[in-house]
Amino acid sequence: GAVERRADAAYGVIYIAPAVIAMIWLRRMDAGLSWTLLMFTVTWFADIFAFATGSLLKGPKLWPRYSPNKTWSGFFGGLVAASLGAVGIVALSQALPALPDLHLAWPVAAAIGLLGGLATMAGDLWESMLKRRFGVKDSGDLIPGHGGVLDRVDGLMFAAIVVAGARLLDQWGWLP
What we know:
The chain is mainly alpha-helical and about 180 residues long. The protein has helices spanning about 1-30, 30-55, 70-95, 105-135, 150-170, and strands spanning about 60-65, 65-70. It has a two-stranded antiparallel sheet with strand order 1-2. Strand 1 and strand 2 (about 65-70) form a beta hairpin. The mean pLDDT is about 90.
C-alpha cells in the first residue's frame, strides 16, 4: 500500500544520499579531481575486470543464490584490477601536471583499491539481494540491456563511501 511505498522511498533516500554526499565532498576537497578519478577507476576496474576474468576463467560461483553469474575467479580478478587501477591513478597524479598529486604511497593506493574493489562488489551483491527480495530482474530500464540506473552504480555507491573514508583518513594524517 501507500505506507509501504513511502517506506521504500525513504529507504531509497537513505540508501543513495550518503554516496552522493561522499562524491560531492570528494570532488570539492583538495586534489578532488584525482580522488574522484581514483574512485571511478577503482569501481570501473573492479566491475569490468571481474566480468572479464569471470567470463574467461569461469569456475565456482561466488554466491549463486543471489547472483548466479558471479564467480570466485571474477571476484579476485576484479580485486587485483581495482588495486592496480588505484596505483595507476597515483602514478598518473605524480606524472601529469594537470592532475593534482594524491601524495599516496603505492602500497597505500593498492590497499585503497582493494577496499574500494571489495566495496564495489559488495554493492553489486547488495543490489542483487534487493532485486531478489523485491522480485525484480532489473532496477529499471533506462539503458536497454543494462538493468536500471542502480544496476550501473550499485558498486559505485559503496566504493564512494570507502574512497571518501580513505580521503578523510588522509586529511587527518592517518595514512602513511
